[in-house]
Specification:
- By secondary structure, the chain is an alpha/beta fold.
- It contains eight helices and five strands.
- The protein folds into two domains: about 1-195, 3-Layer(aba) Sandwich (Rossmann fold); about 195-239, no CATH class.
- Strands 2-1-3-4-5 form a five-stranded parallel β-sheet, with helices on both faces.
- It binds flavin mononucleotide.
- Flavin mononucleotide binds near residues 85 and 86.
């Protein structure tokens, strides 16, 4: 199976340690591709909207974004990680998510996304891991992913993994091993189930795209929906 990991920090800190524990189960059987932010996508979205209006290849940062987006699309499992910075995901994670706005359902969602599973791993010192995970989950769910598992950790102690109280390290390791074991035993040959919320969001976007396409058949998003057959009877969870 293919796994893509997006590390929201380049630091080999607590987030990195937790992610390594998670991947341990998968290493032997999987093809794992990792990206570290900001190194692998160091630029910010400038808001030119070329990705939406002309196509994602027109983005000034397309070389970075294309590598990450194509790896995500080839994955059975997506792993996104981030420590909490001021109660949210890291700025570099947010910068990447901005670059991937064209994949949101109101624009040009990729049919492959609806079949995938994802895991979000966040942690913090005291508070903010949940809101950091929510930042990431928001994008993933609007890309069309239904099966998203969230791991949040709270250190309440030292911020260096090796200096954390032994009891805390054991607690986090056990929690992560349980999660990893559960996800390892999923049959990735079978596509993920698409939940009702995703279907409602899709159908609402379809209604908007249908009217946009009728008004302007050259509008890129509408053309994508028409090409996929989604303005007719096709649905991404049926193919
Ligand atoms: C810029 C910055 C902002 C932070 N904001 C928070 C925060 O809002 N809440 C919190 O509990 N910890 C916060 N922290 C602490 C980190 O989340 C915590 O140390 C975490 O374990 C770092 O993970 P890492 O070792 O993977 O880098 C912040 C740290 C930094 C550098």
């Amino acid at each position: 199976m293919n796994i893509t990991v997006i590390n929201g920090t380049g630091k080999h800190g607590v987030t990195y340690h937790l992610k390594e524990i998670f991947l341990e189960h998968f290493r032997e059987k999987s093809n794992i591709r990792e990206f570290y932010l900001p190194k692998d996508c160091p630029a910010f979205c400038s808001g030119c909207t070329d990705c939406i209006l002309k196509g994602e290849h027109f983005c000034k940062d397309a070389d970075y974004v294309y590598k990450i987006a194509s790896s995500l699309l080839e994955s059975d499992l997506i792993v996104m990680t981030s420590p909490a910075y001021v109660m949210h995901a890291t700025g570099s994670m947010k910068a990447l998510l901005d670059h991937l706005a064209y994949l949101w359902m109101p624009h040009r969602p990729a049919p492959e996304m609806f079949k995938k599973r994802a895991v979000i791993i966040t942690q913090c010192l005291g508070a903010g891991a949940k809101s950091a995970a929510k930042d990431i989950k928001h994008s993933l769910s609007w890309w069309g992913i239904s099966e998203i598992t969230v791991f949040t950790g709270k250190l309440i102690g030292n911020i260096v993994w090796e200096k954390l109280a032994k009891k805390k390290r054991i607690e986090l390791t056990k929690k992560m091993n349980r999660l990893s074991d559960r996800l390892f035993h999923i049959d990735y040959e079978k596509p993920s189930k698409v939940n009702v919320i995703t279907k409602i969001k899709f159908l609402f976007c379809r209604m908007v795209q249908k009217s946009l396409y009728e008004n302007d058949p050259e509008y890129l998003d509408g053309k994508h929906w028409a090409k996929m057959g989604w303005l007719g009877k096709e649905r991404p969870w049926r193919t």
